[in-house]
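// run 5 | inverse folding | seed 20
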C-alpha cells in the first residue's frame, strides 16, 4: 500500500516539476541541455536588458568592426556532472 502511494505521488510530481522548471528557465533566460555525462544550464541574453535589448550583443563600428557580447549574457555555466553508467556485466567480453 505504501509503495503504491509513493509511486503515485512520484508519478504526479515529475510532470509538475518538469513544467515548473521549464517556466523558471524561460523566465530566467537559461537554456537547459542534458547528455549522458552532464546537465548544463547555458545563459541566454536577458530579454529586458536595457543595453542590448535582448539581442545579446552588438557590432562595433570603426576600422576593425567586430561583435561584442553584452554583460547580461556573460554568466557562468552551472554544470552537474553525472556519474558514468557502469556496465551490468563488467567481466563479460565485448562481443
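// decoded
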Amino acid at each position: 500500500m505504501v509503495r503504491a502511494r509513493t509511486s503515485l505521488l512520484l508519478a504526479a510530481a515529475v510532470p509538475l516539476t518538469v513544467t515548473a522548471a521549464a517556466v523558471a528557465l524561460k523566465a530566467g533566460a537559461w537554456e537547459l541541455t542534458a547528455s549522458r555525462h552532464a546537465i548544463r544550464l547555458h545563459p541566454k541574453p536577458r530579454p529586458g536588458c536595457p543595453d542590448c535589448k535582448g539581442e545579446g550583443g552588438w557590432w562595433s563600428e570603426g576600422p576593425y568592426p567586430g561583435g561584442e557580447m553584452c554583460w547580461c549574457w556573460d554568466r557562468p555555466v552551472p554544470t552537474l556532472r553525472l556519474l558514468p553508467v557502469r556496465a551490468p556485466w563488467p567481466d563479460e567480453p565485448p562481443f
